[in-house]
């Protein structure tokens, strides 16, 4: 049986917010900022930090991994009409 030791989550290397027409969007990045970006989008009823296990492994493989919380999910703002 393989060791489960390698299955640990890692916090993003960078976290920031961007404005999209007045809605704050939370963005998370793993890996070197100068590497080729790889975008990860989560599904419905989910959030970007779901990638805390996968994104570090992709970043260790040479990618700049970028994930964001869709509006109304995770740490991004909700849009109210």
Describe the structure.
By secondary structure, the chain is mainly beta. The chain has a domain at 26-68. Helix content is 9%, strand content 31%. The protein has one helix spanning 54-60; strands at 14-20, 23-30, 37-41, 64-68. Strands 1-2-4-3 form a 4-stranded mixed β-sheet. The longest helix is centred in the last third of the chain and has 7 residues, at 54-60.
Tell me briefly what this model is.
The protein is mainly β.
SSE blueprint:
Elements: E1 14-20, E2 23-30, E3 37-41, H1 54-60, E4 64-68
Parallel strand pairs: 3-4
Antiparallel strand pairs: 1-2, 2-4
Overall structural class, as computed from helix and strand content, comes to mainly beta
The number of helical elements comes to 1
Helix content: under 10%
What Rg, in angstroms, do the CA atoms define? 14 Å
* Ends apart, CA distance between termini: 53 Å
Mean pLDDT metric? 93
Strand percentage: 25-35%
- H/E topology pattern: EEEHE
What's the β-strand tally?
4
The shape, in one word, is globular
Low-confidence stretches: none
Largest sheet: 4 strands, mixed
Strand arrangement across the biggest beta sheet? 1-2-4-3
């Amino acid at each position: 049986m393989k060791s489960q030791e390698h299955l640990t989550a890692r916090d993003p290397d960078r976290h920031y917010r961007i404005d999209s027409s007045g809605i704050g969007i939370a963005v998370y990045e793993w890996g070197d900022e100068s590497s080729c970006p790889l975008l990860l989008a989560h599904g419905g009823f989910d959030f970007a930090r779901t990638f805390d296990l996968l994104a570090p492994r992709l970043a260790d493989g040479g990618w700049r991994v970028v994930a964001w919380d869709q509006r109304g999910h995770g740490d991004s703002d909700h849009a109210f009409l």
